[in-house]
Amino acid sequence: MSSGEESPVAIIVSLLAEESLLSEQIGYGIEEEGVPFRTHASHEDDPTVAAHEAACDSALRIGVGIMEEKIVLHHQRLPRNEPLFAVVDPSKSVARAIGTNAARLAKRTPLKPIET
Amino acid sequence: MNLIAGIDIGNSSTEVAIFRRTDGTWSAVSSSLYRTTGLKGTTENVPGIRNALERAVEKIDAPISELDLLLLNEAAPVIGDVAMETITETVVTESTMIGHDPSTPGGGGFGRGVVVDIDTDPAEIEAKSVVVLIPSSVDFASAASIINEWHTQGVDVQAAIMQKDDGVLVANRVEIEIPIVDEVREIDEIPMDQPAAVEVASSGRTIDQLSNPYGIATAFDLSSSETQKIIPVARALVGNKSAVVIKTPEGNVEERAIPAGSVRIIDGNGNSLAVDTDEGAEAIMDAVETAWPITDVEGERGTNIGGMLNRARAEMAEITGQDAESIRIRDLLAVNTLVPTEVAGAVAGEHRMEHAVGLASMVKTSELPMAQIAEKLESTLDTEVRIQGVEASMAVLGSLTTPGTDVPMALLDMGGGSTDAAFINEGRTVDSTHLAGAGDMVTMLIDSELGLDDRSLAERLKQQPLAKVQTLYSARHEDGTVHFFDEAVSADLYGRVVSLADDGSMEAVPTDHTVEEIRSVRRDAKESVFLTNARRALETVTPSENIRHLPFVVMVGRSALDFEIPEMISDALAEYGIVCGRGNVRGTEGPRNAVATGLVLSAVGGGEYLDFAIPEEMAAPIETTVGDVHE
Fold this sequence. Notes:
The complex is a heterodimer of chains A (about 120) and B (about 625). Chain A is an alpha/beta fold. Chain A has one domain (about 10-105): B12-dependent dehydatase associated subunit (Rossmann fold, 3-Layer(aba) Sandwich), CATH 3.40.50.10150. Chain A has helices at about 20-30, 45-55, 90-105; strands spanning about 10-15, 35-40, 60-65, 70-75, 85-90. Chain A is globular, with a radius of gyration of 12 Å. With about 625 residues, chain B is α+β, with helices and mostly antiparallel strands. In chain B, the strands form seven sheets. Chain B has a six-stranded mixed β-sheet with strand order 10-9-8-7-11-12. Chain B has four domains: about 1-75 and about 370-400 and about 590-630, Nucleotidyltransferase, domain 5 (2-Layer Sandwich); about 80-85 and about 260-365, CATH 3.90.470.30; about 95-255, Swiveling domain of dehydratase reactivase alpha subunit (Glucose Oxidase, domain 1); about 440-515, CATH 2.40.50.140. In chain B, strand 21 (about 420-425) and strand 22 (about 430-435) form a beta hairpin. The interface of A and B includes residues 2, 28, 31, 33 and 114 of A.
């Protein structure tokens, strides 16, 4: 697995809950685009705050916050309460698309449309 | 009589200039522009005229009834139309797949082997080397473990072709380094048990085996005659990051010319010159030049060109009430172009750039029924209406109000349907010409060359400069400057090429083209139409037929408002030592309002704008003079 554990340049995925089907899909989305990422457990209770903190810690300035049924994609330079995407109860394919977009944000290529 | 309006009905917009007399001197007090209603030259234009007038009088707080006189022009009865004829095609017979360029293929390198499905029992594989086919029903984790198992059992897995966008995920989970091409939509179309070659270039590079005819020959052990046949395949793959080539027993890729019909160009003596469209634009333009001035053009039935010529005739017939058979095509402009066309028989939606010829035509009749419009307008508004002058002469008069101009002067009127030119000599007589091809042809060329199939998008890409959104807070303009935003761009603009409207707002370009590709297509289209026509038009109206003898060229019309066309033409004409620039009618209107302004000036004798007496034949209303528009 190339989840980029050692790479200092990586997207940071913040898990507010246990690893799940959703967090797995996020990882696949990022991996297929070929961008390093690493995950860590968070004690925050708001995925938006966690995503923004992750973005601030990330050398790529990109963070993802995942709760049981909510995913937030954030960029360090965005206002804390205005994430790029915040999706409640996403399907598998939407979760994967959020992962793809986190990576594309890093690659500066056009994002996939997300139906919310 | 103290308030007069000049009205110019154009193909797309109707313009008005209002002049008022104060202390014996006439000066402009208002101007306006409104969309033309109906086809130019028909009584359907009246509502548009009324709207334009209302807008203009609103600015001077006067009711329409205060206008003493309305002036119309004897509009040039010209209609332009455009068409495209593809003259080559690539046909894939059987199911030879000729390459595919997904955004994220997996792994890397070059592999060749026989195509087998991933469901196959490895014990039954007879081929020495295999290329594995992974349909969307098999997920990437299972696919990777099956490939690993095959490898352990001694099967030489050389490459994989998969349906879903999971190439990198599979590559990261297999123990061997193989190229994996993904996002192959029509994977069922791929024939089993046939030899295939797969290549994925390393990061930052493009493929070099399958884009080389000898690379393909090496992969499939081809003879010299077979190698000649696969040249189109290799050419189609140049620049790809990944590709697949499959050889089927009868499979073949053919590049061939399609019979696109011919055009017959008829000269002044009734002699006709036939040119095959597939000989390209140069051959057609040579024939036009040889037969100049041409009296008609005929296109072959069933071809796009034939259809276009008939359409132009029918439209003109409808406006003038004449018989379509009696309407003549007076000019033709042909431009070579390339059109991305889906390859017939390919399995992943591949495109090839095919050769095509873009054509514009121009029809012209003796006159439009302007008197009918004048009558209708007079009864609608209860104001005197007069047909004051010929369009070309009026445009010249209006353009001469551009500061810094003098006679002799040439006028280049670049519209949507036709490019018109007029020349006024020291004796103040005007000569004019109308040529096929203008803004609409540029739009068509951009539309087809970028494969948009969307005229309004093509129109936007013609009119607006581009930028690339690089970060959430910045975009790089096509000239290289970077613009920063106060607020983050929306997600649908991120990473995209965008077009910039006049007010600075951005709209995404929904294609995969780069800024450089679109810019180059856009500029080539503008140059091939407007540079060619500027030269042709000016040569026709210059008495010596030598552009070098022109001191002043003033550009007006809708396409003179374009952000780059006027400078392209100025640059090209600078080598002849000509002063050429965008007009600025009355010093305030830019390249707009020339005809409307000229109409009033001709009626009032120049007002405060012209320092010469307007010759009798230009100042008198049209009923008593004969139009001097040169055929």
